Amino acid sequence: MKMIHSYTLSCSPNLVGGTLMRQRTHYATKGPCAIKSSILLQKDEDGKLTASSDSFPPSTGNAAAASLSVLGHSNAVGIIGGVSAASTLSFLQKLVDWSSREGRESLPFIVCNDPTLNRELSSCERNLGKSCFLPEYDVVLENLLQKRKFLERSGARCIITPFHISNLWYEKISEGCTVPLFHVGECMASELKEADLKPIEAGSNCKIGILATEATLKAEIYQEKLQNQ
């Protein structure tokens, strides 16, 4: 069920931060949705995500690891997939369309789409967000952390978790991360502030409506970020 909440945003000409990798670089064209690299993913005996031994070397420090990683581009994007492969592909199409405007090559990216994580996130969404902090959902956090670390080692220069429920664990996932990890709520609030929207009635603040599932609203992924603006 979709629900609509409205919040007030005080718009100011001062911008807060930036959005996803505004700087783009030209590359040889390989088609509109070409993925720059492939990695063989495996799981060890404990079920942890690993890569084949020749995919990337052990970490030897950020500078050395970056020079030897799978994606060596300074604007490579790492993406942790969402509740379904279809929703992940939908986001990827938007990323490619946005970054390849004006005839430019799309951003290089690497994606982790794990059906196990998809099911875990779907279960969290069914349990209305806040209950996801129960101990039985620690496995979800561990899975997300594995994906984040894998993307770091693979050469991602920023990481995004564009699916609402994943951002419930943002503080824990981002702890110790060596590259920027974007929060969807912060990105949305920043974009709205940059848009410098004008209120309908002079002298009042802009009112922003949120159209989302009940689980997303209960998780307050967007409300807090909007209120902080």
TrEMBL record:
Molecular function, one GO term: amino-acid racemase activity
Keyword Cell division: no
Keyword set, alphabetical order: Isomerase
Alphabetical list of Gene3D superfamilies matching this protein: 3.40.50.1860
Name of a matching Pfam family: Asp_Glu_race
InterPro entries: Asp/Glu/hydantoin_racemase (IPR015942), Asp/Glu_race (IPR001920)
Annotated protein name in UniProt: Uncharacterized protein
